[in-house]
Amino acid sequence: MRRTDSDSPKDTADSAGRSGSAARSEARRAGAGSGDRALGDFLRALRGRADPARLGVFDDGRPRRVPGLRREELAELAHVSVDYVVRIEQGRKRRVSRAVLTALADALDLDGDERLYLFAVAVAGTSPRDAAHPQDTPDDRVPDSVRRLLDGLPLLPALVLSRRMDVLAWNTAATWLLVDFGALPKEGRNLVRLAFLDPGYQALFGDGWEPMARESVAALRMEAGRRPEDTALQALVGELSVRDARFRAWWAAQSVSAPKLRRKTYHHPLAGPMTLDAQVYAVEGSPGLSLVGYSAPAGSPSEDALRFLAQWNSEGQERRP
User: Fold this and answer.
1) Strand pairing partners for 279?
2) Chain centre distance of CA 96
3) What is the pLDDT of residue 54?
4) What interhelical angle do 209-226 and 231-243 show, nearest 10?
5) If pLDDT is split at 50, 70 and 90, which confidence band does 274 have?
6) Which of 175, 162, 178 is nearest to 291 (CA)?
7) Which one, of 93, 91, 67, lies nearest residue 80 by Cα?
8) Cβ distance 160 to 291 under 8 Å?
9) Lowest-pLDDT choice from 5-9, 87-91, 146-150, 273-277
10) Which of 8, 185, 246, 312 is the most exposed place for a label (fewest CB within 10 A)?
11) pLDDT score, position 37
């Protein structure tokens, strides 16, 4: 089954009337950006969506011009000066101590992923270009042993992903479930790009598309915080920001999340709905690569649907001359 990467009507409408220079400017503003401003931008977003009452801030009766915490309230909760918070948010404070970062995280009651991101962007903003992370294995170097493992899974869909969620390798079952990756150009083989720009891929998720798409944006931003100098990631974020208003809004919201085990329901046009668990495994010896396998509980209707897909496609191969 072949799907192509194309603009949806929403994409076309969103892009209409923009000049090329305006689009490039927006891409730069929405892109992964440098570590210098990432910490301040993230802190400002966290402060903006914080609930003062939940954090124990006394209501003094003054009207709030914008939602969230005022700078002076955050400064008081974190036991730092207001000027210090201002300088961080404006990108004028390059080095922030671990103690202050911990105080800010505690004051905002951040969850685990948000704390990790806060510390990651703080480190990235003070590290020389390309020094925060040594050169990783090239994205297209998938070990032969992993490729053999993919080929040895005739029923269970499986992929190898880069940190940017580029699809670097896949087995036949993955093409039956998701998309014919071999029919796409190399730059189109990215799960986030497919989520926003491929109508066929979007349709697989039905009403669950928006939660899936939001999760993918949050995971991509998590990676952007760790590697602000990743130009390929910046290009992906810039393109999607220009071509889809939803991506642009969710990226600007600064939500972050590390990839986790997810159970999703796929609405396959041939096999019908199936609920699958996606498990992520690190590829040993290949930093940045992960193996993602999709499975269903034994004896479940979803397992039957996977077997149906395998049989259907096997019979289709036999019918071809």
Assistant:
1) 293
2) 26
3) 92
4) 150
5) very high
6) 162
7) 93
8) yes
9) 5-9
10) 185
11) 85
Backbone angles phi, psi at 13, to 5 degrees: -65, -40
In the chain, the amino acid numbered 312 is: W
Residue (of 231, 267, 222, 234) closest to 115 by Cα position: 222
SS (H, E, C) the chain: CCCCCCCCHHHHHHHCCCCHHHHHHHHHHHCCCCHHHHHHHHHHHHHHHCCCCCCCCCCCCCCCCCCCCCHHHHHHHHCCCHHHHHHHHCCCCCCCCHHHHHHHHHHHCCCHHHHHHHHHHHHHHHCCCCCCCCCCCCCCCCCHHHHHHHHCCCCCCEEEECCCCEEEEECHHHHHHCCCHHHCCHHHCEHHHHHHHCHHHHHCCHHHHHHHHHHHHHHHHHHHHHCCCCHHHHHHHHHHHHHCHHHHHHHHCCCCCCCCCEEEEEEECCCEEEEEEEEEEECCCCCCCEEEEEECCCCCHHHHHHHHHHHHHHHHHHHCC
Residue with tokens 């992520």, as numbered in its chain? 280
Query: Average pLDDT of 56-73?
Result: 85
CB atoms within 10 A of CB 79: 12
Query: Minimal CA–CA distance to 157: which of 295, 263, 265, 262?
Result: 295
**CA separation for the pair 44, 126 (Å, rounded):** 19
Contact 312, 175 (CB under 8 A): no
Q: What is the C-alpha separation between 30 and 54, in angstroms, rounded?
A: 30
Sheet holding 290-295, edge to edge: 167-170, 158-161, 290-295, 272-282, 262-268
Instruction: Compute CA distances 75 → 24, 106, 108, 190, 235, whole Å.
Output: 36, 12, 11, 41, 35
Q: Are the C-beta atoms of residues 272 and 265 closer than 8 Å to each other?
A: no
Residue 81: how many CA atoms within 13 Å on its side-chain side?
A: 4
Rounded to a whole number of angstroms, the distance between the first and last alpha carbons of the chain is 17
Q: What CA–CA distance (Å, rounded) separates 107 from 89?
A: 16
